[in-house]
Amino acid sequence: MTDQYLLPYEWPGSYFIDEEVIDAVNQVLLARSPHRFYGHDLQHTTDQLEALFRERLGRKHAVLVNSGTGALSTAMMAADVGPGDEVLVPGYFWVACVSSVVRCGAIPRLVDIDDTFTMDPDDLERKLNPRVKAVLVVHMSGACGDIERIAAICKERGVTLIEDVAQANGGSFRGKPLGSFGDLAIFSFQYNKNITAGEGGMVVCDDDLLADRLWAYHDVGYARNAAGRVDSGARVQSWGQCVRMSEVSAAMLIPQARKLDQITGQMRARNQQLYAGLSAIPGAQPRRVIDPAGDSGPFVIMTWLDGETCRRLVEYTRARGVRPGPHGMGNICMTDWGLHIYHHNVSLVEKRGVNSAGRPWSDPLNAFHTEISYAKGTLPRMDDLIARSNLITVAPVLTEAACEQIIALFREAAGV
Fold first, then answer.
1. Are 201 and 70 in contact (CB under 8 A)?
2. The model's pTM
3. Counting CB atoms within 10 angstroms of each CB, which of 58, 181, 297, 316 has the fewest?
4. Run of H or E residues at 132
5. Confidence grade of residue 234 (pLDDT, cut at 50, 70, 90)
6. What CA–CA distance (Å, rounded) separates 115 from 140?
């Protein structure tokens, strides 16, 4: 086992926490105004960041929150998801995707993936039914599947489409930014993401009523007036979560957001280098990326002939340095990818409730859940792909030379 690590840590935005970010944060702290809505001398960093993303995505509204999970929950609430509803979710996800549905009192139904490692539009069409309130499409591992077709299906069936862009910030599909296809779209600025404030998130939309609901639900249940005070006469008066973003987090993100194309461009270049080299190995099959120019670049996924081959190649190459430092992941079999895999989520498989009453599973409006399973085998295409695939993380500081070494080691492991 070597002590030399060919993969940098897998936290893309962390490499851009620099003096510019520190100066921006200091400005907020010296103004003694970290709260979004009031303070000694508001710097309006949250307003600036929302404006930046509205322009970047071509969306009318943007609402910053404190995490991607908070963004998902706020989006589900804005979409009026609740008891008696289903939300269709791909089986390759992060646990927050299903927990946001369950906490709203609704029932998630899993949709299989295809070789893009995102939602299979054919299985989506098969599973649409009158109970479906929303579809959550997740742009996992940096790139999307056929989002145009999925958006068209949802529009035709009158179902709310929510895009999860947490792992693909800065990505696009045929020139259109990811996050601009859904009725609602969420982003994450957690430490693993393309830009980061440690934690953070955002929801965007175009519809004015949805926006009013987002503002209310992400705050105390009401909108605020120009002075930052609660407006009890607002159009939406409900129950909020207080998942607001602070001015400090927004200050961290603004300099990074202005470099987002640089960050994703650097990752995409190395991503494509690795795909080209690894795909030349007999029996190797790269993830199908419909629009390589729109891949935000932080992950490479390769599928091999069988699980035994995949495990052997990963163990051989990790032992020779194809991994990050001792505290990171980076070159792993996807069967080891934790809560990203649907049947690894014990609370989902066992239908555990969010309270002692067992809700949402015990809710009479959700009695249909008995026909739904989350056990391994529910999604046969995904089960097969995950069993034979490995995932390599691509940081923006990964070098061309390191990529050549990685390719050579995989070729060596494969006996080429």
1. yes
2. 0.97
3. 58
4. strand 132-138
5. confident
6. 12
